[in-house]
Specification:
The protein is mostly beta strands. 5% of the residues lie in helices and 38% in strands. It has 1 helix and 6 strands. It has a 3-stranded mixed β-sheet, with no helix packed on it. Strands 4-5-6 form a 3-stranded antiparallel β-sheet, with no helix packed on it. The longest helix is centred in the middle third of the chain and has 4 residues. The protein is flat and about 45 Å long.
């Protein structure tokens, strides 16, 4: 459910919207022309994602994972 209509909005906003709360279809961060979707279903995938923004531009993502030893790994990722 998208009560604000952000997910269906295809035109540009004044700024790029970075959001969660709606799981991406790919289970990875997804970049659209007017928004960046970060909800990678951490409860299900173990992947918690964050966007790294430098100088007003997306640089890359940081994503956690479950390491082979049961610990938490952090990796840089870019689509």
């Amino acid at each position: 459910m998208d009560p604000c209509g952000i997910l269906d909005h295809v035109d540009q906003f004044d700024h790029i919207v970075v959001h969660g709360h709606t799981i991406t279809n790919s289970l990875w961060p997804e970049i659209y022309q007017n928004r960046i979707a970060l909800d990678t279903a951490a409860y299900r995938t173990g992947r918690l994602s964050a966007a790294v923004i430098r100088h007003d531009r997306l640089s890359h993502f940081l994503c956690t994972g479950i390491a082979a030893n049961g610990g938490i790994s952090v990796e840089e990722w870019m689509s």
